[in-house]
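---------- Forwarded message ----------

FYI, see the Murein hydrolase regulator LrgA record below. Original note from H. follows.
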Amino acid sequence: MKLIRDFAVILACLLAGKAVAAVLPFAFPASIIGLLLLFTLLSTQLVRLDWVHDGGQLILRHMALLFIPVAAGLLGYVDVLSQGLGFILVAALSGLVLILLLVGRLYQRMVS
């Protein structure tokens, strides 16, 4: 019964995010809006953490299974991905280096 409540709260935030995304004048991912809404509700303690903890843990535990359909769908675009592989690798590595430098700089500023 607890998992049903956990999933209901998470699903309600997702559906609220979809409703907000539908009325926005620009495209924005509804799932991100739902996560921000859930974060806000948890931060303000309108929703207690134990109301979503077990359901969230179950989803996280089985997250790898949720990526299987996406990976299977990408197999249909192997030719497109192989053409842009260089750009993808450069973007990923430069993003990684940029994030590491930014986090290192921020940590140095916070410590000193």
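H. also flagged this: The mean pLDDT is 92.
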